[in-house]
Amino acid sequence: MIRLMSLLMLALAVCPAYADVDHAPVANLKVGVFIEPPFVIESSKELDGISIELWEMAANKCGWKWTYEIMDLPDLLESVKTGKIDIAVAPLARTAEREKVMDFTPSYLQSGLAIASEREPIHTMLDVISHVGDRAFLQLTVSLLIITIFFGLIMWWAERKTNKDHFGGQMVHGFGSGVWWSMVTMSTVGYGDKAPRTAIGRFVALVWIFISIVLLAAFTGTIASSMTIGRMGDDMSRLSDLHNKKVGAIEQSDAQTWLEKHNIDVVPYKSVDAGLNAILSEKIEAFVSDRSPILWEVAQWDKGQEIVTEGNIHPQKIAFGLPTDSKYKEAISVAILEVLESRTWNYIRAQYGEQKGLLSDLDSDAGN
Fold first, then answer.
1. Is 367 a member of any domain?
2. 309 and 320 in one domain?
3. β-pairing, 307-322 with 87-93?
4. pTM, 2 dp
5. pLDDT digits over 202-249, tens only?
6. What angle do CA 208, 213, 218 make, to 5 degrees?
């Protein structure tokens, strides 16, 4: 359906829009591709993916023809540098180092690197106790305690004069009784040893009962989620967490270059799939790559629940690569910008990512 809509729109706007640009039809452009779903997907019949859709829409606008050549990332980058291919259609990150040896089209997505590691499920009581130190657990516990004390204070203030048997006496004693009442009410234990008698006190009690039901459900849900889903044994959501770990990345990718600049040794792999398999076989402890391909691969696996993806540790601008001073740069850049400004681009993004939660963090970027 997306392709049909794209072709219909292309029929309305073709090369006359580029009368001042060298865009004469070319018999056959050599287009190098690197398989990395959801950007470039290889099926039994054809190539697909968000990058392929963008390229074909832009190339059709220019009246070009092309043939695809599937390559590993190192071969793809080398072929662009040497001019063996006319364009690299892949999710290439625009970096300062790459800009020195090749040109780029306008960026069509913003992304970031993520860290994948093996999930360690909770099996013992010690695993459950270890969650006491989790940030979400601590925040919820402290919030619950503060609200409980607050309602205990209100109940003591409302009942201190007319209900001295339950909330009277010294302030410390009366306030302590209010907090005790608040806690047993929240826990639904309801001993009945402390109870409001005034209209204000009973109104406060009704409000607290409804609020405490919601808070207790959230608290219980947090613990249950931790016990059923599990978490990583070691938190790996920041660059500093990767030091002294065995880390993998795609060979010659921006992830490998960036990690090595930060003095992290990298084990190179040919694909995201190979890197994630290396995690499960315990050859590496973490794999760093673009977040969307990791999530895409994990979603296809039967053992996907064994992988945890954390962080967005290094922002990237994604674009196509061109040989330096390519005569096709101006025409393809204009065509890509027109596609990015069209409604069709939103449909394409939805098809390959946003509806599945895989590209929700990526924003279109029409700038150079």
1. no
2. no
3. antiparallel
4. 0.66
5. 898 899 888 888 888 877 776 666 555 444 445 677 888 898 899 999
6. 125
83: buried, middle or exposed (CB in 10 Å: 19+, 13-18, 0-12)?
middle
One domain for residues 142 and 54:
no
Pair (321, 305) in one structural domain? no
The answer to whether the CB of 49 falls within 8 A of the CB of 39 is yes
Query: Can you read off the two tokens belonging to residue 219?
Result: 């608290």
CATH number at residue 255: 3.40.190.10
The answer for residues whose C-beta is within 8 angstroms of residue 210's C-beta and 6 or more apart is: none
On the 0-12 / 13-18 / 19+ scale of CB atoms within 10 A, 119 is middle
Instruction: Spell out the long-range contacts of 223-228 with Cβ–Cβ below 8 A and sequence spacing 24 or more.
Output: 223/128, 223/131, 223/137, 226/122, 226/128, 226/131, 226/134, 226/137, 227/122, 227/128
Closest CA to 159 of 199, 192, 210, 190: 199
Number of Cβ within 10 Å of residue 316's Cβ equals 23
pLDDT 10s digits, 20-42: 444 445 558 999 999 999 999 99
Q: Which helix (H) or strand (E) holds 350?
A: helix 343-352
Per-position DSSP letters for 274-321, written without gaps between them: HHHHHHHTTS-SEEEEEHHHHHHHHHH-TTGGGEEEEEEEEEEEEEEE
Q: How many CB atoms lie within 10 A of CB 70?
A: 13
Structure tokens at 37: 């779903």
